Amino acid sequence: MDSLIQLIFDHAPHAHWIVFGALMLAGFNIPISEDLMIILSAVLAATVIPENTYKLFLGVFLGCYISDWVCYWIGRKLGPKLWNITWFAKTFERKKIDQIHQYYAKYGFLTLLVGRFIPFGVRNALFLTAGLGKMPFGKFLLSDGIACLCSNTALFTVTYMVGKNYDALLGTLKTFNIFLFAAFAVSIIGFIWYKRKKKAAI
To answer: What does the pLDDT look like over 161-197, one tens digit per residue?
Structure first.
């Protein structure tokens, strides 16, 4: 990941293509953090290449969205045969997949919407399960498209705004730290004064 991050920053004008490619690899369950790619893209858009903001957002959105299709079709085409692959069997427990099946049956679209905000391998399990359960591809496209747009927009926008207002936020943080330190100091002084007064009374 360190090398990938360095590559993205070294080739910032073309970062949207690099991020898109990295996210496509993530669709094959290669350990590339989707959240990190979104955050890096938003930071670049806010601080280094603001003129590429829309390209960067499209890069992460399309990369995330299309890589979901890869996961879906792996699950749909290979089905239970996937558990014959040692690596897959270790990564995705049957119990976990069965539980997600139950969530789909009970909550439907909300499973994808909520699950899209949960990192650490949950997303790929969602898409594979949709494929394993043979969810109609059109339904998957629509549901995941809405969920992907919501989650990506939220994380990209928050990171972008933080990057844009870094100086103001830093100033606020410094003021808060001074206030916190002062409150802590007053508390310590008050505690020492109380202990001495109590000891003198005894």
So the answer is: 887 765 554 454 445 445 445 555 555 555 555 566 6
The torsion angles phi and psi of 32, rounded to 5 degrees, stand at -120, 125
Q: Report the pLDDT averaged over residues 96-112.
A: 87
CA separation for the pair 154, 8 (Å, rounded):
22
CB 73 within 8 A of CB 128: no
Confidence class of residue 79 from pLDDT cuts 50, 70 and 90?
confident
Residue 168's alpha-carbon distances to 8, 41, 57, 162, 174, in angstroms, are 26, 21, 24, 9, 10
Whole-structure pTM value: 0.76
Phi, psi angles (nearest 5°) of residue 3: -65, -40
| Spacing of C-alpha 68 from chain mean position | 14
Treating both helix axes as pointing N-terminal to C-terminal, what angle do 2-10 and 15-26 enclose, rounded to 10 degrees?
150
What per-residue confidence (pLDDT) applies to 141?
Answer: 93
Q: Report the SS3 class of residue 143.
A: helix
